[in-house]
Write a structure and sequence with these properties.
Elements: E1 2-11, H1 12-18, H2 22-28, H3 31-39, H4 44-60, E2 73-77, E3 83-87, H5 89-97, E4 102-109, E5 113-121
Cofactor: Mg(2+)
GO cellular component, one term: cytoplasm
Function: Transfers the 4'-phosphopantetheine moiety from coenzyme A to a Ser of acyl-carrier-protein.
């Protein structure tokens, strides 16, 4: 059963400019995500796609970033190189309280824009 959906579009240039700021990186990306971005040489489109996905997931939870921050939503890759969502801390508690057991996310980008769409599901 679908419990929520979310979408977001982000300008790659905005993320590119903010990636020069360590405070921004620590506020937005978890250590696991920073490790992944390092492997990708901090590709701007990848970072923007991850940012858009975090926003989309927060919207699918029905709250936006209320009572949790961007680092509580990890956007990683599974063994098939498909984007996957890992919730932490208050985002995980909220999802559990809502009965959300699975979150699907799709990310796409051009040179200028990154977009993500998310579906939060329950059993």
């Amino acid at each position: 059963m679908i419990k929520g959906v979310g979408t977001d579009i982000t300008e790659v240039e905005r993320i590119k400019n903010n990636l020069q700021n360590d405070r921004f990186i620590k506020k937005i990306y978890s250590e696991n995500e920073v490790d992944y971005l390092n492997k990708r040489k901090f590709n701007y489109q990848t970072a923007a796609g991850m940012f858009a996905a975090k926003e989309a997931v927060s919207k699918s939870l029905g709250t936006g970033f209320s009572n949790f921050g961007p680092c509580d939503i990890e956007i990683l890759k599974d063994e098939s190189d498909k984007p996957c969502v890992n919730l932490l801390n208050n985002a995980l508690i909220l999802a559990n309280n809502l009965g959300i057991t699975n979150i699907q996310v799709s990310i796409s980008h051009t040179v200028d824009l990154a977009i993500a769409f998310c579906v939060a599901e329950s059993n």
